[in-house]
Amino acid sequence: MTVFALSTAQGQSGVAIIRVSGPFAEKVIKKLTKKKLKPRMATLCKIYKNDKEIIDESVVIFFEKNKSFTGEPVAEFQTHGSIAIISAVLSEIAKIKGLRPAEPGEFTKRAYLSGKINLVQVEGLADLIAAQTERQRQQAIMQYGEEASNKYLKWAEEIKTCLAFIETSIDFSDEDIPVDLLKRTRKIAKKVQKEINDHLKTEQQNEIIKEGIRIAIIGRANSGKSSLINYLSKKETSIISSKPGTTRDVLRAERAYDGIFVTLIDTAGLRKAKNKIEVEGLKRAKKESDLAHIRIFLGSNNEKNPFSGLNINPSANDIVVINKSDLKKKHNIKPNLTISLKEKTKLSILETKIKEKIRKIASPHTGAILTKERQKNHLICTETALRNICGGDIEIISLNIRDALSHIGSITKESNNEEILGIIFSKFCIGK
């Protein structure tokens, strides 16, 4: 069956791309343009309705079998992006027998089933389409490209080597099993185990890239928290007032630092609560403090106890800041930095420190990281099976190695599991 869909976003645009994939792709081109095109050559064609009326003039490209994204013959119509034109072209294509509208993710699914991409690349493509920050894009392209797949394929080859050694050993009698083969098998298995365990640890980094880093600004009432979040977010997120207790709830602002998604959190100023609203605000401030990756403790230069009532126990990712350096100093605190939000003093230094903390948290590992629960589950099973070959009967060792090989292979290719494929491809939009 040949399928078709609008592959660009719905709605009016400068250009729209309508894709047709399947054995009738070339027939569709001839029907709509009255031309036979050379493969992979962009050609300006008139698009006809009912073989007479011109719908549009567009660029049309034909990709022959095995030379397209899906691996099938593909036609692409690059039309003007008016809703009327798109609707008219889709309507004409739908009249042709043997065609139907594509389902969500069907073009990508056909590319997978044709062997053009593997499952890791499919998942990477979905992430690439959904990427909102530079770091999300960078990681997605590693999954869609070859870096992540090559890691899994390399482990598969090493486990195959283990299986070859063990199968060779089985051909010998118990008395004649070459000790060296078993030793080499266990050495390779141990190496792969360690590499898998290291890769599993990168899952936390993926969560940070995906969900972002939380930065909580914590301090007493009227210490300048609202002014600080407004400065860092580059927008008026919080109301600024000299009256203490203006912020009673948790306020959030979002931005990106060096390609990392960051949520800035302005918490209620810590002081003795005067009503139930302030009590609830202080509870939420405590919760945000506990969940934050980075905490900025903010105190006032003109107070004897700038952090009175705060249980300050800064970690390596926290920053202790004294604000209002333009006022007379009344404390003996040694902060990481003293600033003045009013006079914009040393604020760029504070931002530099924040960026350093973000980079440290978001980049402990280089290269492709673990991004999917499905991949994680197979890796855990692979590692467990390899761990079980340390001793025991030679046939049991062989079974464990085969189990490990099955799981590591399923990461890149799992075509026999329709339920898994359904879940993966359902996340794509129609036209991709």
Number of helices: 14
Query: Remind me, CATH topology of the largest domain?
Result: Rossmann fold
Using the coordinates above, name the CATH class of the largest domain.
Answer: Alpha Beta
**Gyration radius, in Å:** 30 Å
The biggest sheet, with number of strands, parallel, antiparallel or mixed sense and barrel status, is: 6 strands, mixed
In CATH, the homologous superfamily of the largest domain goes by the name: P-loop containing nucleotide triphosphate hydrolases
The run of helices and strands is EEHEEEHEHHHHHHEHEEHEEEHHHH
Question: Globular, elongated, flat, extended or rod-shaped: what is the shape?
Answer: flat
Write structural notes for this entry.
The chain has 432 residues and is of the alpha/beta class. The chain folds into 3 domains: 2-113, Probable tRNA modification gtpase trme, domain 1 (Gyrase A, domain 2), CATH 3.30.1360; 119-202 and 370-412, Four Helix Bundle (Hemerythrin (Met), subunit A) (Up-down Bundle), CATH 1.20.120; 211-362, P-loop containing nucleotide triphosphate hydrolases (Rossmann fold, 3-Layer(aba) Sandwich), CATH 3.40.50. The protein is built from 14 helices and 12 strands. It has helices spanning 25-33, 83-94, 106-113, 119-130, 134-144, 147-170, 179-200, 203-211, 225-233, 276-291, 347-362, 373-387, 394-412, 418-425, and strands spanning 2-6, 13-21, 43-49, 53-63, 74-81, 99-101, 213-219, 251-257, 260-266, 294-300, 319-323, 337-338. The strands form 2 sheets. A 6-stranded mixed sheet has the order 3-4-5-2-1-6. Strand 3 (43-49) and strand 4 (53-63) form a beta hairpin. Helix 12 runs antiparallel to helix 13. The longest helix is centred in the middle third of the chain and has 24 residues, at 147-170. The chain is flat, with a radius of gyration of 30 Å. It starts with a strand and ends in a 7-residue tail after the last helix. The model is unreliable at 238-249 (pLDDT under 50).
